[in-house]
Each structure stands twice: as C-alpha cells, then as structure tokens.
From TrEMBL, chain B:
It is found in: Cell membrane; Membrane. One of its GO terms (biological process) is response to antibiotic. It comes from Streptomyces viridosporus (strain ATCC 14672 / DSM 40746 / JCM 4963 / KCTC 9882 / NRRL B-12104 / FH 1290) (Streptomyces ghanaensis). This is Transport permease protein. The chain crosses the membrane at residues 47-70, 76-96, 131-152, 158-182, 189-208, 246-265. InterPro entries: ABC2_TM, ABC2_TM_bact-type, ABC_2_transport, Nod_factor_ABC_transporter. GO terms for cellular component: ATP-binding cassette (ABC) transporter complex. Keywords: Antibiotic resistance, Cell membrane, Membrane, Transmembrane, Transmembrane helix, Transport. It is a multi-pass membrane protein. Belongs to the ABC-2 integral membrane protein family. GO terms for molecular function: ABC-type transporter activity. The keyword Kinase does not apply. Coiled coil: none annotated.
Amino acid sequence: MTRTDEQAGGPDSAVTVRGLVKHYGETKALDGVDLDVREGTVMGVLGPNGAGKTTLVRILSTLLAPTAGQATVAGYDVVRQPRQLRRVIGLTGQYASVDEKLSGRENLYLIGRLLDLSRKEARARADGLLERFSLTEAARRPAATYSGGMRRRLDLAASMIGRPAVLYLDEPTTGLDPRTRNEVWDEVKRLVGDGVTVLLTTQYMEEAEQLASELTVVDRGRVIASGGIEELKAKVGGRTLRIRPADPLHLRPLADALDALGITGLAGTTVDTERDAVLVPILSDEQLTAVVGAVTARGITLSSLTTELPSLDEVFLSLTGHRAGAPQDAVPADTREEVAV
Amino acid sequence: MSAATPLTGTGADARIPLRGHLRHTGALVRRNLLWIRQDPESMFDAVLFPIVFTLLFVYVFGGSIGQALGGGQEAYVQYIVPGLMAMMGMNMAMGVGTGFNQDFNTGVMDRFRSLPIGRGSVLFAKISVEVLRMLIATTILMVVGVLVGFDITHWPGLFAAVGLSVVFGSALMWVFLTLGVVMKNAQSVQAMGFLVLMPLQFGSSIFAPTQSMPGWLENFTEYNPLSSLADAARGLMVGGPVAHDLWMTLAWSVGITAVMAPVAIHKFRTKT
C-alpha cells in the first residue's frame, strides 16, 4: 500500500479527491474532479441537478466505484480500503434514509448494533442522540409518522452514531419548508461546532453560505470554481439589489441611471419585466448606499428594495457565462436519474 | 482525528470476525421481525395461503382427481398436502424478491451499505426471517391438512419433509433476492416471478399425478425440481419410494444455492 499522505492534500486533509472520473456509458457524471476538505471544516459542493454531486458522495461512501482517479477519506482509499473507510464516515442522503416502519429509537439502536456497540451501549447511544436531536418524545413512534424535519433529524442522528470523522450531507434540506430547513441548519451548525468535518452538497447558494467555509462549484462533472466562500462571493458579485419602483414606467429610466453609476459587476444591471423590478449586483455596502443615493437624486418613488444572495443560476452565469446545467439535457433520461439521485 | 494517522495498511482491522457477522445478521433479523410486528398484515399470505389452497384443492378438485388416484377425496388429501408443502417455499421466495426490492427503493439500503458490515448479512437476515415465515405457513398447512383428513403415517418423515422444503425454499430465495436486487421495481419482480412460477408449479406433480399428461409435459415434470420435492415429501410423510427424489431435491437445492447465493451477494455489493 502506497503512503497516502504524499499524494493527498497534506496531513490535515480529511477528504482528498484527485482526478475522479465516473462514466455511465457515454455520460460523464464526474469528469476529473479534484477536491480537498481540511479537517474540521465544512466544504460546500454547489451545483445544479445532474452536476455529479451525488455521484461524488456515493463514491466517497463506497456505494459506487469510480471509473478512474483517486479518493481518500481520513487516509483510507475508497477502492482499496472500503471497510476501514466505512468506519469513519457518516452519510445523510438526499432522501432521509431511515426505516419508516421502525421507531426512531429502534432505527438508532439497529445502526448502533451494526456498528458493533453492545446492546447496552447501543441503547444508551440511541437515547443520547434522540435527546440531542429533540426526538425523545417521538422516540417510540414509527418513523413513518414523523414530519419531514423530524426525519432529517433522525437521519442526522443515525449518521452520528459511529462518531464519524467525516460527515456527508447530500442536499440535506432539499424538499423542506423554510422553517424546517433552518432547523436542520441549526443542527448541522452544532455538529460543526463539535469539530466534525462535513462535505455538504447543495443547490442553494444560501445554504452554502450558511454552513460552508469553503466552496467548490461543480457543473457537468467538473469543478468550475473553488475557494473560500467570501472569495467566491466577491467573484460572483456578492448580493443583488432588487428595486421596485412604485410606477413601472420608471423601470427603464431607473435602470439607465444605475447603469450610469458604473458600479455593477460582471452581470450588469438587468430589468425583471415580469416582476417590474431592477436587479443590480453589488459588492459592498458603499455601493448599496450609492445606489440608494442615485435613486433619491432622481426622485423616483420605490415600492420595495431588497437585497438577495445570488441564485445558483446567477452564480453560474457569472462563473461560466452560461446557465446552470443547461446542456445536461442531452443526457438520456435513464442515466440521468442515476446521476442525479 | 485519531483514525487518520497510522492506519494506512490493509491490516486485520478490515476483516469482520464471524461473531461480528452473527451480530449484524441478528440485528437485521430483529429489524425484519419488528417489521412484522409493526405490520401484522404482512403475515396474511403466510397464514391464509395454506388455508385457502388446502380447502380449495381438496374440495374443488379432490373428488375427481381422487377418483383417478383410485380413491376419493381422502386419497387426494394424502396427495395434495405434501404437494402444497413443496409449493410453500416457492411462494415465500417470490415475496422475498418483491419485499427486498421495495426495501432497495428507500434510502435504508444505502445506509446499510455505507456501514462497515459484511454486506451478505443483509441478505442472510432476510432469508432467516423468510424461513421462519415459511415454517409458520407449513405448521398451519399441516394443521389444516390434518383437519381435512390428512393422515401422517411417518412422524419423523414429517420433520424430514419440512427440513427438505426449507432447504429447497431457501435456495429459491437466493434466486428471487437476485431478481429483487437487479430489477427496477417490485411490480416487475412480481410479474417475472409469476411467469416462472406458474409453469413450474402446474407442470409438476404437486397438484395431480403426471401419468395422464402428454409425453413432452411428463418429461418436463420429470426434471422439474418441484416434482422431486413434492414426491419426496409424499414418500417421507405417507410412505413410498423416497431416495431418488430426495437426492434430486438436495442436488437442485445445493446447485441453485451454490450459483445464486454468490451472484446475489455480488449484485448486492455492486448495485449502484
């Protein structure tokens, strides 16, 4: 066995991925991905459906064999040392992977036993985690009766039984309402506070910003940008100001006036005619103030003014010049399902 | 992170000891038993199948087929009850495939497969519970059988027959487990199961003696393992020649298991 440290991204790298490739016939789910997750950090992997995020997670959890390339987790090679690797990871999938017919407690007890805890330890660990994830009251009910948020929490609890060094969260809030999403975010933040290394995949810039310290943006199986989250945010133009004049007739003059300010970044000022708003990408609070000043100077009355984080589409537009995942439509539906799920 | 530092070799820590396998299988058996407790209706087939089939065959076909056997309904009871016992394994096995397939379409299997357990444990646990269900169904069959007049002449033979049908049934379960893993949804597993099941069951000596069948069909029944199992069960419980059918059944069981168990485990391991 070759020493993995030398090829890996240094001794404090918890997850190291080099040139990872996964092909399904003609489809390139992963087409040469490099990635380093440092110990104790949260790496966000941002990308649209079909970008290869789930494929990456499945390879890193030994559920799928890569076509080529190398990946190590906590020093263990995904292909050559799958059993050791499984001991140090926790997986929370896109769909909560809990047994619906079992109660929350039975779910956790089962995983504990499968992780070689004694009966007593497994019971104690299950109760501890139920308490921690606020599921004690529902502990004896079948998971089928749980709400979406409770299921995700149970799923997270199940991932934590083995005290994993690295936790994968594959789109942990997809399909959840905003309140439940915040609940899951809070739980993830607590786990991160405990020093767990997290690899998080998401379609939402907002989620990445909430949880991750570093970000890798993927599209069609390739990394198109990576770095610190602040760094990338600056690159994609930070926030977007959405300005609605009270009178839709003011849309064009307002847009022209703001364009004339010359502060906007790559994407430029755009007019959202559907919702009668002008969108201005801004990079700083100073720019925000300048925009408001310009609006006041023109004497235009506004009905609303909000700042938004860039959507995934805008991130992609500014990083690649094309919309997220658009050419992916060429992929046959059959294989795409496997790529995305 | 303590685990990251020294453990780069493929040391013994990678191997799962036998006790570990047993513990994992035990935990998963418990899971499947809890399923039954949670959803008692899942036992309906095991309970109702032997009752309905015994009554149906004895009272609908019993008179006329019994005549052909040189008796009446009583003669047919002696014929059909061991036959139904042989059929039990196949029916249970089909359920294994569909149930397992449904399990796969939830995220639970991903979780199991990302745990450091022998992946065969999941399959062994499923088979253990199904064998248990099969034993319950067989017990009910025997009770109903005796109630409609079945006369067990060799008690040790009864246990041998039950054992033999369990061995053959679990061999078939590997086939259906493989189908359950490979096929896309539970409906297709079931459809596929029926397609195989019907000709095998009716083209055998389970329900009726084969002498009156056309030559080609009689030849087919000759090599049909279900005929061997049914005839062996008859021989063991009510007397008659046993050795040939017994060995044939065992040979089929061992053969099927030897081929299909590794295939099922492999397919389960590499399923994406």
